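Hey team,

Filing this mostly as a record. A colleague (T.K.) asked me to run one chain through the structure pipeline before their review meeting, and I want the input and output archived in the tracker in case anyone asks later how it was produced. No errors, nothing strange. Just documentation.

Input sequence:
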Amino acid sequence: MEPVSLSVDELMLRPWREDDAEAVCAASRDPLLRRWNGEERTTLDGARAWLTRIAGWSTEHCSWAVEDGGVLVGSMSLHEIDLAQAVGEVGYWMVPAARGRGIAVRCTRAVCRWGFAALELDRIQLFHAVENTASARVAAKAGFTQEGRLRRSYRYPDGVRHDELLWSRLSDD
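Output structure:
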Protein backbone atom coordinates (compact mmCIF):
# COMPACT_ATOMS: atom_id res chain seq x y z
CA MET A 1 0.00 0.00 0.00
CA GLU A 2 1.33 3.41 -0.91
CA PRO A 3 1.48 6.04 1.86
CA VAL A 4 -0.97 8.94 1.65
CA SER A 5 -1.12 12.35 3.30
CA LEU A 6 -4.28 13.73 4.89
CA SER A 7 -5.04 17.35 5.64
CA VAL A 8 -7.25 18.32 8.56
CA ASP A 9 -7.88 22.04 8.79
CA GLU A 10 -4.42 23.55 9.40
CA LEU A 11 -2.91 20.15 10.23
CA MET A 12 -1.07 17.76 7.93
CA LEU A 13 -0.87 14.03 8.47
CA ARG A 14 2.03 12.82 6.35
CA PRO A 15 4.18 9.72 6.08
CA TRP A 16 7.12 9.61 8.47
CA ARG A 17 10.59 10.53 7.20
CA GLU A 18 14.09 9.68 8.40
CA ASP A 19 14.69 13.34 9.24
CA ASP A 20 11.89 13.18 11.86
CA ALA A 21 14.20 11.33 14.27
CA GLU A 22 15.32 14.39 16.26
CA ALA A 23 11.77 15.68 16.70
CA VAL A 24 10.55 12.22 17.74
CA CYS A 25 13.42 11.95 20.22
CA ALA A 26 12.61 15.36 21.73
CA ALA A 27 8.88 14.58 21.93
CA SER A 28 9.53 11.21 23.54
CA ARG A 29 11.31 12.77 26.49
CA ASP A 30 7.94 14.01 27.76
CA PRO A 31 7.10 12.07 30.95
CA LEU A 32 3.53 11.35 29.81
CA LEU A 33 4.68 9.93 26.48
CA ARG A 34 7.29 7.83 28.27
CA ARG A 35 4.68 6.51 30.70
CA TRP A 36 2.60 4.92 27.94
CA ASN A 37 5.20 4.44 25.19
CA GLY A 38 8.45 3.67 27.00
CA GLU A 39 12.00 4.93 26.78
CA GLU A 40 13.06 3.56 23.39
CA ARG A 41 12.54 6.78 21.42
CA THR A 42 14.27 9.03 23.97
CA THR A 43 17.61 8.46 22.22
CA LEU A 44 18.35 9.37 18.62
CA ASP A 45 19.21 5.76 17.78
CA GLY A 46 15.98 4.60 19.42
CA ALA A 47 13.95 7.17 17.50
CA ARG A 48 15.58 6.07 14.24
CA ALA A 49 14.83 2.41 14.99
CA TRP A 50 11.21 3.27 15.78
CA LEU A 51 10.88 5.26 12.55
CA THR A 52 12.30 2.35 10.57
CA ARG A 53 9.65 0.04 12.06
CA ILE A 54 6.65 2.29 11.49
CA ALA A 55 7.56 4.15 8.31
CA GLY A 56 6.77 1.25 5.98
CA TRP A 57 3.11 1.00 5.11
CA SER A 58 1.36 -2.30 4.57
CA THR A 59 -2.14 -3.68 4.50
CA GLU A 60 -1.71 -4.21 8.27
CA HIS A 61 -0.24 -0.85 9.34
CA CYS A 62 -0.37 2.84 8.32
CA SER A 63 1.31 5.59 10.32
CA TRP A 64 1.45 9.37 10.01
CA ALA A 65 3.45 12.22 11.48
CA VAL A 66 1.11 15.04 12.53
CA GLU A 67 2.34 18.53 11.66
CA ASP A 68 0.97 21.90 12.66
CA GLY A 69 2.58 24.69 10.65
CA GLY A 70 5.42 22.38 9.63
CA VAL A 71 6.20 21.40 13.24
CA LEU A 72 5.82 17.80 14.44
CA VAL A 73 3.10 17.70 17.10
CA GLY A 74 2.15 14.03 17.19
CA SER A 75 1.67 10.63 15.69
CA MET A 76 -1.37 8.79 14.34
CA SER A 77 -1.56 5.19 13.30
CA LEU A 78 -4.06 2.72 11.99
CA HIS A 79 -2.66 -0.69 12.85
CA GLU A 80 -3.68 -4.27 13.56
CA ILE A 81 -5.59 -3.94 10.28
CA ASP A 82 -7.41 -7.12 9.24
CA LEU A 83 -8.96 -6.53 5.83
CA ALA A 84 -10.76 -9.90 5.85
CA GLN A 85 -12.56 -8.90 9.05
CA ALA A 86 -12.74 -5.20 8.03
CA VAL A 87 -11.31 -4.08 11.37
CA GLY A 88 -8.38 -1.95 12.51
CA GLU A 89 -7.07 -0.19 15.58
CA VAL A 90 -6.21 3.49 15.94
CA GLY A 91 -3.43 4.86 18.12
CA TYR A 92 -1.90 8.29 18.70
CA TRP A 93 0.31 10.47 20.82
CA MET A 94 0.66 14.25 21.00
CA VAL A 95 3.41 16.52 22.27
CA PRO A 96 2.50 18.66 25.32
CA ALA A 97 1.99 21.82 23.22
CA ALA A 98 -0.64 20.02 21.11
CA ARG A 99 -2.69 18.67 24.00
CA GLY A 100 -6.03 20.21 24.86
CA ARG A 101 -6.40 21.78 21.41
CA GLY A 102 -8.54 19.08 19.79
CA ILE A 103 -5.72 17.96 17.50
CA ALA A 104 -5.87 14.29 18.52
CA VAL A 105 -9.67 14.30 18.14
CA ARG A 106 -9.62 15.85 14.65
CA CYS A 107 -6.82 13.58 13.47
CA THR A 108 -8.50 10.48 14.88
CA ARG A 109 -11.71 11.37 13.04
CA ALA A 110 -9.76 11.93 9.80
CA VAL A 111 -7.90 8.61 10.07
CA CYS A 112 -11.21 6.82 10.73
CA ARG A 113 -12.86 8.46 7.71
CA TRP A 114 -9.89 7.42 5.58
CA GLY A 115 -9.91 3.85 6.96
CA PHE A 116 -13.63 3.45 6.35
CA ALA A 117 -13.42 4.84 2.80
CA ALA A 118 -10.02 3.74 1.48
CA LEU A 119 -9.69 0.38 3.25
CA GLU A 120 -13.42 -0.35 3.51
CA LEU A 121 -13.11 -1.04 7.23
CA ASP A 122 -16.34 -1.53 9.15
CA ARG A 123 -14.92 -1.23 12.68
CA ILE A 124 -12.04 0.70 14.19
CA GLN A 125 -11.04 -0.03 17.76
CA LEU A 126 -9.17 2.05 20.31
CA PHE A 127 -7.56 0.70 23.48
CA HIS A 128 -5.97 2.67 26.32
CA ALA A 129 -5.02 2.14 29.94
CA VAL A 130 -7.83 3.04 32.33
CA GLU A 131 -5.52 5.60 33.95
CA ASN A 132 -5.02 7.41 30.63
CA THR A 133 -8.01 9.71 31.00
CA ALA A 134 -6.84 12.01 28.18
CA SER A 135 -7.19 9.13 25.71
CA ALA A 136 -10.69 8.46 27.03
CA ARG A 137 -11.65 12.07 26.29
CA VAL A 138 -10.20 11.81 22.76
CA ALA A 139 -12.08 8.56 22.10
CA ALA A 140 -15.41 9.97 23.25
CA LYS A 141 -15.02 13.25 21.35
CA ALA A 142 -13.92 11.37 18.19
CA GLY A 143 -17.21 9.46 18.14
CA PHE A 144 -16.13 6.15 19.67
CA THR A 145 -18.40 4.10 21.93
CA GLN A 146 -16.92 2.58 25.06
CA GLU A 147 -17.60 -1.14 24.99
CA GLY A 148 -15.87 -2.49 28.02
CA ARG A 149 -12.96 -2.92 30.35
CA LEU A 150 -10.29 -5.52 29.63
CA ARG A 151 -8.76 -6.63 32.90
CA ARG A 152 -4.93 -6.71 33.05
CA SER A 153 -4.87 -6.81 29.27
CA TYR A 154 -1.61 -5.03 28.39
CA ARG A 155 1.82 -4.65 29.95
CA TYR A 156 2.84 -1.01 29.58
CA PRO A 157 6.47 0.20 29.87
CA ASP A 158 6.15 0.45 33.66
CA GLY A 159 6.07 -3.36 33.70
CA VAL A 160 2.52 -3.51 35.10
CA ARG A 161 -0.35 -5.21 33.31
CA HIS A 162 -2.95 -2.45 33.23
CA ASP A 163 -6.67 -2.75 32.73
CA GLU A 164 -7.65 -1.16 29.43
CA LEU A 165 -10.81 0.40 28.11
CA LEU A 166 -12.03 -0.81 24.72
CA TRP A 167 -13.76 1.66 22.42
CA SER A 168 -15.05 1.23 18.88
CA ARG A 169 -16.33 3.28 16.02
CA LEU A 170 -18.33 1.67 13.21
CA SER A 171 -18.47 2.79 9.61
CA ASP A 172 -22.11 3.82 9.98
CA ASP A 173 -21.76 5.60 13.35
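Quick notes for T.K.: The longest strand covers residues 71-82. Residues 6-170 form a domain with the Aminopeptidase fold (CATH 3.40.630.30).
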